[in-house]
Queue: 3 jobs
Job 1
Amino acid sequence: MAQKQEGLIYKKHPLRRVGNMIYYGSMADPYIIFMQVKETRTEKDRAVATKVSVELQRTAPDLRSRDRVVKRSEKDSLYAAMDVSAIWLERALSGKL
């Protein structure tokens, strides 16, 4: 029997991309990371992110969208954004905010 593929996993959390938006974490958890690629440049026929907005957000459905944001930052590469995202998400989910 075929196993269900979950998609991309980064450091034990799901990673989903929709256009220029990236969601890191599970909506079943109390926190997720929302990233948005704001600027890109072309290198060897590929788009490379040069400005990425990162937000740690609560997933509670009863909160307004602006009240969900716990932390916010802007990074100059997707690598730097993923690095800070992994740290923020682990700290938030372990209660060490």
Job 2
Amino acid sequence: MFVNKVKLNQGVTLIELMVIIALIAVSLMIATPSFSGFFAKQELRGLGGELLFFTKLAKAEAAKKSSETYIVFKKSSATSWCMGLSEDNDSCDCTSANSCTVDNIERVISSSDYKEVSFDSNNFPAGKITISPYKGRSASAGTATFSVTADGVTKDLSLKRSIMGRDRVCSPSGNSLRYPSC
């Protein structure tokens, strides 16, 4: 009786290992730009949500304290900017620590949290939003616009505020994630 002994190779040859590593490297080189664009767009999307939160918090604080609250915008350059929420008209400088506070809690949104996002324009009077305790209204309307360029495409968001106190985040170009066109 003949018994065939089949020798099974267990393990991977050096050439097979090199081919697998090369395939992984090529896949990563192709995927990396897509991931960086994805994360940049998510930063802009997150900023939109935080802008709405800031305006709602400002309205609530104005009503609670029966006095005006302020959202102050500061822009050193397109990629160096900040916003601060304050109960005091003159003391809020979001570039200084603890100057923009509500109930002794610092309230600041900064470009350091949104590294890919540019602050493009702001046409609020004196660079700030003044929110009245009466239904969160404002003395004047305005818009602040932010953008990000990812994968060769520019996405933009605007915070629009009406005199009646209606806040909305929208896309001026109509191409920004889940937000509607302005």
Job 3
Amino acid sequence: DYEEYRRENRSKFENEFSTWRTGRQSQRDMLNKVDEHAEVVGSDGERIGTVDKVEGDRIKLAKNDPEAGGRHHSIPCSWLQSIEGATVTLNKSAVEAKTMWRDE
């Protein structure tokens, strides 16, 4: 059964993975456009914080920002939706991002 299922779904997987990989590469490319001190907002437009710097494939947020509570937090590039001017918009709401961000 397993081999039959794999054969039948191979094309679907390859198409979905190709789409996912293209999207992920676009998000990684966006990291080059992230500027220090840019404002980070959720998909709902609510403020999350300020960019401190980019480290690897993560954006580290400033710990002196009122939203940070005196601690550094980081978010992965997979959360990037768009970058327009000095504003980075995520594909998660502010509440989701703050619940899921990583303490540094």
